[in-house]
């Protein structure tokens, strides 16, 4: 994913959620079935980046390094999808996202085989968005055409920076020249819907350097830019030994504001904490997450969320994290072993989980959408909504709740108001 949950997964919020139980009354409302997406996790990378806490596993490169078992993994994905199908009977898939890891390590035939299998099992909406995450260090001539022929129509490049010093400090396998070349190769292959991932507040980065990264990104005319503040995630090399010269919060905020203005004047409107798009080019897949839509999660460590209309329940299901365990489950013939766990999102937890997503959006959410997606009457959240309004974190008008600028800056504090008591 384009790192959609980064601030929402704050380690500060997790213990709070686990330690509190809800005593309030949840007046009920009909839970309606939202749009359905399909997320596919491809978990290998050439090298593990020192800041990355995604479920990604280094397989190495160069002579002697064994390639990941692409064919066996696609077999496992198809078996995994088959076992999840009953959760999505009769529904139409609106978006597909291959995330990682480094999906662009996979040969196009593997992506093609999976998409053919998926579209023969599930109804695909006409012209649906199909995104594949791409590392510029894995770009090869001919590969982009083959991805496009397989049905991929959107690429998301992990660029991070156009400064070679920054790229080195981030442990990336590519340099800025390769980044430019990879994007141009994709454009020449006919891709006209491209996201570039950039990070800011990098070690030894100045405001001018962050602005330069935006300029270089804009010169490539992508349709979408994701602009993430570097986070020191627990259990990463950067968290264990933080690099020198990471800008402080105020410095990072200045970069964010400056880059946001640069992007706005080039026609890229911010629609989410870290996401900017040309008109009509928002990422439909991520929007579905942020609107608390449904998704099947296929692949090692993938998470799914499904609304079960008949039961008026919301189910989360996740898969075992390690690719070896995932592959072993498929090889054993008992794919159920690939399920890491299932849980229902009880009504008391739904407002918090909804806000984790919806409050990332610049436009916020309609109260009617909250009711439909959570199966809970808006009256149940009247008190935290009012508190957020009084603190100037939310603007509430004509049935919509929209984060103010200060609400966006202190997103975690706003969300914490919706924790079950
Ligand atoms: C799963 S990665 C996908 C792209 C591909 N694996 C790559 O890195 O080239 C998604 C994006 O999350 C962002 N990201 C990863 N770790 C981060 C961190 N610790 N702080 C901020 N952004 C991060 C990066 O911009 C990265 O491109
Ligand atoms: S290439 Fe992407 S997924 Fe892989 S380790 Fe680096 S940031 Fe993480």
Give an overview of the whole structure.
Helix content is 36%, strand content 22%. The chain has helices at residues 13-19, 70-84, 108-121, 143-150, 164-169, 176-188, 207-219, 237-240, 249-265, 284-290, 323-331, 350-358, 367-374, 382-390, 405-409, 411-416, and strands spanning 36-42, 44-45, 57-58, 92-100, 123-134, 154-160, 194-200, 224-229, 269-272, 275-277, 294-298, 303-308, 313-319, 339-344, 365-366, 394-397, 400-403. α2 (70-84) packs across α11 (323-331), α3 (108-121) runs parallel beside α4 and α7 (207-219) packs parallel to α9. With 421 residues, the chain is an alpha/beta fold. It is globular, with a radius of gyration of 21 Å. The chain has 16 helices and 17 strands. The structure holds S-adenosylmethionine and iron/sulfur cluster. The site of iron/sulfur cluster has 11 residues, from loops.
Short description:
With 421 residues, the protein is an alpha/beta fold.
Ends distance: 31 Å
Number of helices: 16
Bound molecules: S-adenosylmethionine, iron/sulfur cluster
Percent strand: 15-25%
Low-pLDDT sequence parts: 1-25
Counted beta strands: 17
Radius of gyration: 21 Å
For the largest beta-sheet, the strand count, sense and barrel status come to: 9 strands, mixed
As a percent range, the share of helical residues equals 25-40%
pLDDT averaged residue by residue: 92
Shape: globular
| Structural class by secondary-structure content | alpha/beta
């Amino acid at each position: 994913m384009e790192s959609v949950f980064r601030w929402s997964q704050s380690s500060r919020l997790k213990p709070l959620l686990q330690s509190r139980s809800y005593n309030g009354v949840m007046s009920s409302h009909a839970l309606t079935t939202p749009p359905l997406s399909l997320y596919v996790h491809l978990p290998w990378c050439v090298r593990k980046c020192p800041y990355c806490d995604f479920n990604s596993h280094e397989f190495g490169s160069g002579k002697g390094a064994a390639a990941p078992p692409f064919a066996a993994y696609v077999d496992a994905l198809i078996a995994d999808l088959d076992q999840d199908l009953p959760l999505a009977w009769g529904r139409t898939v609106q978006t597909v996202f291959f995330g990682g890891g480094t999906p662009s390590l996979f040969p196009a035939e593997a992506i093609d085989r999976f998409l053919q299998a998926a579209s023969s099992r599930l109804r695909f909406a006409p012209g649906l968005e199909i995104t594949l995450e791409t590392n510029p260090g894995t770009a090869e001539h001919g590969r982009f055409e083959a991805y496009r022929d397989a049905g991929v129509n959107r690429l998301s490049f992990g660029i991070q920076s156009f400064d070679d010093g920054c790229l080195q400090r981030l442990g990336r396998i590519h340099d800025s020249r390769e980044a430019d070349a990879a994007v141009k190769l994709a454009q020449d292959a006919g891709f006209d819907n491209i996201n570039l991932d950039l990070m800011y507040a990098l070690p030894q980065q100045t405001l001018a350097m962050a602005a330069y990264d935006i300029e270089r990104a804009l010169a490539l005319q992508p349709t979408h830019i994701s602009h993430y503040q570097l986070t020191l995630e627990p259990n990463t090399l950067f968290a264990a030994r933080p690099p020198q010269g990471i800008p402080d919060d105020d410095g990072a905020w200045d970069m964010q504001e400056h880059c946001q203005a640069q992007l706005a004047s080039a026609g890229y409107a911010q629609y989410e904490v870290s996401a900017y798009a040309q008109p009509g080019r928002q990422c439909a897949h991520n929007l579905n997450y942020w609107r608390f839509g449904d998704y099947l999660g296929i692949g090692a460590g993938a998470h799914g969320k499904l609304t079960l209309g008949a039961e008026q329940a919301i189910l989360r299901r996740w898969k075992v994290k390690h690719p070896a365990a995932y592959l072993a489950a498929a090889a054993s013939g008992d794919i159920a072993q690939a399920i890491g766990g299932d849980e229902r999102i009880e009504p008391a937890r739904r407002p918090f989980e909804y806000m984790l997503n919806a409050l990332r959006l610049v436009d916020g959410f309609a109260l009617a959408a909250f009711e439909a997606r959570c199966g809970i009457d808006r009256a149940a959240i009247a008190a935290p909504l009012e508190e957020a309004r009084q603190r100037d974190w939310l603007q509430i008008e004509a049935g919509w709740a929209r984060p103010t600028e200060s609400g966006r800056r202190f997103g975690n504090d706003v969300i914490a108001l919706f924790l079950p008591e």
